[in-house]
Each structure stands twice: as structure tokens, then as C-alpha cells.
Amino acid sequence: MTTRDDAVRLDSDDPLRSLRDNFQLPTNVIYLDGNSLGALPVATSARVEQAMVQEWGTGLISSWNTAGWMQMPRLVGDKIARLIGARDDEVAVADSTSVNLFKVLTAAARMNGAKNPERRVILSERDNFPTDLYIASSVAEAHGLRLELIDAADIKDRLADQSDPAGLLMLTHVNYRTGAMHDMQAVTDCAHAAGAIAIWDLAHSAGAVEVDLNAADADFAVGCGYKYLNGGPGAPAFAWVHRRHVDSVSQPLSGWMGHVAPFDFTTDYRPAAGVAKFLCGSPAILAMAALDAGVDTLLAAHDFGGMPAIRAKSIALTDLFISLVSPICEQHGMNVVTPLDSRVRGSQVSLAHPDHGYPIVQALIERGVVGDFRATDILRFGFTPLYTRFVDVYDASEHLAAVLASGEWHDERFAVRSDVT
Amino acid sequence: MTTRDDAVRLDSDDPLRSLRDNFQLPTNVIYLDGNSLGALPVATSARVEQAMVQEWGTGLISSWNTAGWMQMPRLVGDKIARLIGARDDEVAVADSTSVNLFKVLTAAARMNGAKNPERRVILSERDNFPTDLYIASSVAEAHGLRLELIDAADIKDRLADQSDPAGLLMLTHVNYRTGAMHDMQAVTDCAHAAGAIAIWDLAHSAGAVEVDLNAADADFAVGCGYKYLNGGPGAPAFAWVHRRHVDSVSQPLSGWMGHVAPFDFTTDYRPAAGVAKFLCGSPAILAMAALDAGVDTLLAAHDFGGMPAIRAKSIALTDLFISLVSPICEQHGMNVVTPLDSRVRGSQVSLAHPDHGYPIVQALIERGVVGDFRATDILRFGFTPLYTRFVDVYDASEHLAAVLASGEWHDERFAVRSDVT
Q1: Among A257, A244, A259, CA closest to A90
Q2: I need a labelling partner for A230 at 20 to 30 A (CA). Which of A337, B29, B409, B410 fits?
Q3: Is the entire prediction scored with pTM above 0.95?
Q4: Separation between Cα atoms, residue A94 and residue A224, nearest integer Å
Q5: CB-CB contact of B236 with B291 (8 Å)
Q6: What does residue A237 show for φ and ψ, rounded to 5 degrees?
């Protein structure tokens, strides 16, 4: 059995331990929800203040040139690229994840329509994040395709079934509910062998697990700026397109920032070279500055082993949490939903309680242990290796045991779901 | 002839003069580019800092509920509504102007396709802002329509021509180059009489001129947050839909924030009631906080006469500038492009120089008079009534006279266009 002293010792041996100092975390809170909203980096305030007061306030319109605002979608994209196995000039930062998914799915649907018009199916997972399904459904309808939702276990067989072949396979790399992670390379290989285009959503992967889009030979990807990238609430998202496609594909949100020469003010749209054609409107500079500072917190891990070290710590944290809460779960009719095999696990641990997940999560939050509830039965705990300590994991499991043993979650304040996130 | 003393007197008689104190303007700069990027309000830093440090840093994920983040697109929308003749719950704040235009144009194209499939034309103005034309072109292609570009003077005749009838009329209320303003009511009436749907871009109108979307009986509108609304570089934009359409229309960017119950995490998209269905991804909270503070600078004019007073001052400022620069223009082979009739003029004055617009603008910027150049021949000067003084107008005209008289714009530093905005 691991003791609290063991956890303290794991922290003092942790090569990434100093990186926690890069975050401004509230005291008396064990924050296990960085998979929903990453914590505030210490550097963000000054970075945003500079963009706001110096660049906007003093530089005014000239800052589009002199402060490099025009280049931010590309420069922040190049930073993110280093976390996901992409190259420079392959990642565009813009808009929201949903909007970027619309762009890449439409680009893929057009490519499919041109090359394989007989393929009428967009394949995805039944419990993929809903916004992905909503956007896919819209794209399917616009292109005369059908969105087919299946279980993760059936993906390979369904791809192999060529009687009604899939044209597009759209998956979220790490599942938002269960934390189960696909083998990106194997699934992409399988999609390609079956003639389908592979589109990956990295919302719960970028900055949390090792991703190598080019090694996996993926076709398109999108990702989120406000989870493990610590870019702040509603931070800009990103889009990636494999360089074998990027010159030939087109996307429908043909705004001026994706034009080859926006300030020529021509009436005809001519897309920029490369992934820049996936930009649309004017970049949100304050949000982009915050995202820039957020991504820097991950690049700061470079000298301590980078993404492999982050991934190793993530596995150690989630392994420890699973080992500590498993006996508690057993005692209280709960179970661990996240894969026990760390090779197919993201950086979260989800527990299921058949009836009372919501009030249990609220009772934990009352104690300062912040996870979240995902209907209908999931208690979700995210572990951000940059700022989560082993002692936090230990204490969180103790709080869970106490909440369940005391029955304090029965408190009527926790009975009615009053919040929205 | 108006003297500098006259201008000083106009400032001291200006009922809006105290509102300039709500902005943090650099000293020694006469900023005449608020039509491209509004100036930084004094209140913005504290508002953004609060969203960043207290709400995000301390409140973390709970702030989606406790700090009202979820409601911001609607609440800021209700504030903007008061500036454009819309009602509460009619304006959604989200994404960029280009993305919102894609949503409303697609909604309109679907409506047209269902009701008037024989109408194959999206009509717009040849020198509409390019991103509007690029987006319209994309929507036209997706719906088997044709984007037809004509001169403003020909709009009524073209609408009346029913041999190849227009289904959609998409116009920017105030032209970004010339500052010419359409009569929204008359043109909308004309569109409706001809069976077309009227879509207005308010990028250069919202916060600058009086707009009454409901009185004009417009169908759809979008607008920009970072010009006269002072929301900061790349601020969120907005979309408006007339209530007679809002329940029946659909838009393709069906992200989870436009779902009737985002946190039910259902697989099927069911749009929210009202304009909320025009939301898509997670709102960019830092940018939204800045926009909120920006819109407040306009609402602060309420006690001094509100939009009618802002409009009256805008006309007085632009009238004064035109009267002062007209003789200078005449002397130097330039002309005033903006309508002399203030009833059809936005809040800017554009001058044309056949050959040397760019270096003249650069020489003015060197003197601290910030306007901008719009290819191929436009020198553009925006007048934001909240912070532009009559004495600024006077001094700017003196600087223009001096730049032209001295020929200092011949300096080789100004010869090559090196910037992008």
C-alpha cells in the first residue's frame, strides 16, 4: 500500500516538479479538472497585459505589424506542432475546435467526394464528444453522406466491411468520458487500408499524451487550446492538415485571413499556401496571447524530458489514483471506467457510480477536490502532469474515501443538478 | 473658415466630451483609425484581469457557472442589441464576423432554397469588404447559387429585374473604403418587394451610426466587435436574426454551445431556441470580457443622448474634416471620396490620391496622425465620436496640409509598402 509519505517521496523524485511553479493555483484546492479547463499560468497575466496595454493601447492599429499580431496564428501553431508530431507551418491556430472540425471535415468530405464518391459514410464513435457528432452530422447532411456511430471495439470490423464503405473516420484520440485512448497509428493504418480518410480530434491529447501525427500518417486533426494547453477559457483551437493534402484541399470558411494576400483586397478568394488557408477571420489577439503563454508551460518541460516525461508522469499519476481508489470503489458499488492498461489510457481517470455520481462530485468539490460529473454516471478526474502532485492524488483518494464513508454527499445541497459544466 | 480656437470651442460645447476619459489613448497621437481597431477603454484592463486572475485563476472550472461565463454571449449580445435596434435575446456574440456571416448566409440560402428555389443569385456590391465576398462565394457554391457583384447605384434596378431574380441581398451598411452608407430601410424594402432576403453587415455601423434592424425589417445581420465597439483586436463578432425567422432557420456550424442542452451530452443535435442556435463552440472568455468593457463605453453615452448624440457628433466631425481638407485636396490633385451629404455618410472620410496615397498616409503616421491606406488609392480617416475631438480634426487637417506642402512623403522610407494592415 502506498502511504502519504510515499507520495511525498514520489513528488521529491519527480523531474517535472519545478514546473508546478509556473502555475498560479488557488490554495486548498486539489485541481483535477485540467482536462476541462487548464489552470492559469503565472506568465499569462503579464503576457495578456502586454498585448492589451502596450500593443493594443499604445501601438494601436500598428501592432498588427509591429507586434507581430498577423503572425500569431502561425507562430503559436509552430509551438503546438512540437507537441503533436507536426512540423513548422503545419498547424493553424484559429476559431474554436468545433469550427475547425467543420473546416477539416468539409475538406475531407470534398476530397472523398472527388476521389471516392461511392463512399457515403462518416464513421465515428457513439460516445465521441457531442460537438464533434453535431458538426459531423451537419457536414454529412451537406455532402449527402451518413454519419454512422458505432462502439470503439467495432471500428476495425466496420472499416473492413466494404459493402457500404466509410469515406471518413472521425475519432477523438482520447475519449472525454472514459479516458480510453485509441492507438492512432494502428487505427489510421486500418482506415487507410480500408480506403478511408482519418480525422483526429486531439482535444484530450495535445499536451497530455504523446502524439505524432506525421508518424501515424494521419490526414487531418484538430485540437483544443483550453484543456492541457492551458490557454484559458474558450482559447483558440487549432487545425492540422497532412502536407500531402494541404495544397489540394479546400475549406468553406474562406475568410480573408486565409487569403493569399488579405490586404490586396481583391474580390476573388485565392487561398494562401499551406495550412494558412484554414484561417478565416481576424485572430483574437488577447486570447491568442493567453494561449501562447499556456503552450509555453508545456515547452518549458523540454529540458526535463518533454512530452515523454509528461506522459511518464501522467501514467504514474493515473496508475497511483487507480490503485488507491479501486478498493474504495469496490466497497461502494463503484467501478473504474478508464482502462487499467496505461498504454490505452489518456491523462484522466473516470469512475462510475450507478446512481449518485453527481452529488459525490459536489461533495468532493466542497472539500476542495475539483473533478467533474459527466452524465449519466461518470465521476471524472483529470491529471495534468505539469501541476498535479502525487500527494494531490493521495489526498484526493482519501477525500473520496471520506465522502463515501461519511455519506456527506447525501446533503440536500448536492441533490439537484444546478450547474451546467 | 474654422480656426483652431473654433475647434477648441466646439470641444468645450460637446455634450460627449467627458467620454474621451473612458479611453487610454497614447499621448501625441491623433488616432483616426478606430474604424479599423477601436482604442483601449480604461476599464478593459481591470475587466480582463478579473476574468483572468479571479475568475479563471481562482474560480477555475466553476466560473462557467459562478462567474456567468456561460451567459456572456447572450448578455453582451443584449448590450449590443441596444445599439442596433434589436431586442433582448436577438443578438448572439461569438466567433468572427466572417464565421457569423457564413452562418447567416447559409441560413438564408437554405430558406431561399426551400421557398424560392428558382432564385439563384446572391447579390452584393462590387467593393463590399472582401471577406464578405469570399464567404458569400463559398456559400453560393455550396448551394448552387451565383454571387453577382454590382455597383451600389445599380442595386434597386437589379433587384427589380426578375428575369434572373436575386434570392439574397448581402450588403455592408457602411462601405469600408468610401464610407458611403446605404439607406437600410429603403434598400431592405426594395429587397423584400423584389422577393429577396436582406442580410446586413454592420462592421462599420454598430456604435458609429444609428441602426434600427427591427424598424428596417431586416432579415439577418452580423457585425464586428473590434471597430467602433472597442472590443480589442480580433474581438468576438455578433449575429442577429429577425424573430420572424429565428425559430425556423438552421445554420451549419452546429456546435454544442448552440444546442438546447449542451451538458446533456446527447448524440443528436437539437438547436437551442432563438438566436442561441447561432452559437457554436466554447466562448472565448478573455476576449468576451474585453468586448463587454468595450460595449460599455458606448452605453456610457446613454445619459448624454446615446446613439443619436454619437451620430450628431460623428456628422459634425466628418463635416468639419471635409470642409478643412477640401481646399487642400483641390490644391494637390486629391479628392474627397466619401459622400458630402452626411445622411449617406458613415463615420469616416476617405480621400483619394491617384498615385501616392500610401506614402502620404505613412508621412502622416510619422507625425502622429494615424489613418490608413486602402489599395489602390484611398487615404482613410475614421472618426470615433467617443474619443475624437474637434481639435484633433483641425490638427489632422493641418498636418495633411503640411505633409503635402513640404513633400515630406517623398522620403524613401515611405516608398515601399512594408506593412500589411
Answers
A1: A244
A2: A337
A3: yes
A4: 10
A5: yes
A6: -105, -175
In the annotation, is A176 catalytic? no
Peptide bond preceding B376 in cis form (omega within 30 of 0): yes
Cell matching residue B283: 466562448
Query: Closest approach of chain B CAs to the CA of A255, in angstroms?
Result: 5
A263 touches chain B (CB under 8 A): yes
Contact B138 A269 (CB under 8 A): yes
Each residue's pLDDT, cut to its tens digit, for chain A (421 residues) gives 899 999 999 999 999 999 999 999 999 999 999 999 999 999 999 999 999 999 999 999 999 999 999 999 999 999 999 999 999 999 999 999 999 999 999 999 999 999 999 999 999 999 999 999 999 999 999 999 999 999 999 999 999 999 999 999 999 999 999 999 999 999 999 999 999 999 999 999 999 999 999 999 999 999 999 999 999 999 999 999 999 999 999 999 999 999 999 998 999 999 999 999 999 999 999 999 999 999 999 999 999 999 999 999 999 999 999 999 999 999 999 999 999 999 999 999 999 999 999 999 999 999 999 999 998 899 999 999 999 999 999 999 999 999 999 999 999 999 877 666 5
Helix, strand, coil shares of chain B, percent, nearest 5, are 50, 15, 35
Of B60, B98, B256, the CB nearest to A280: B98
Q: Is B163 on the interface with A (CB under 8 A)?
A: no
Phi/psi at A357 (5° precision): -55, -45
All three cell numbers of B88, joined, read 433582448
Q: Are B196 and B169 in contact (CB under 8 A)?
A: yes
Q: How far apart are CA B13 and CA B16, in angstroms?
A: 9
State the smallest CA–CA distance between residue B420 and chain A in angstroms.
Answer: 6
B60 at interface of A, judged by CB pairs closer than 8 A = yes
d(CA B186, CA B199) in angstroms, rounded, equals 14
Cα B15 to the chain's mean position, in Å? Answer: 24
Evaluate the omega torsion of the peptide bond into residue B297 and state whether it is cis, within 30 degrees of 0. no
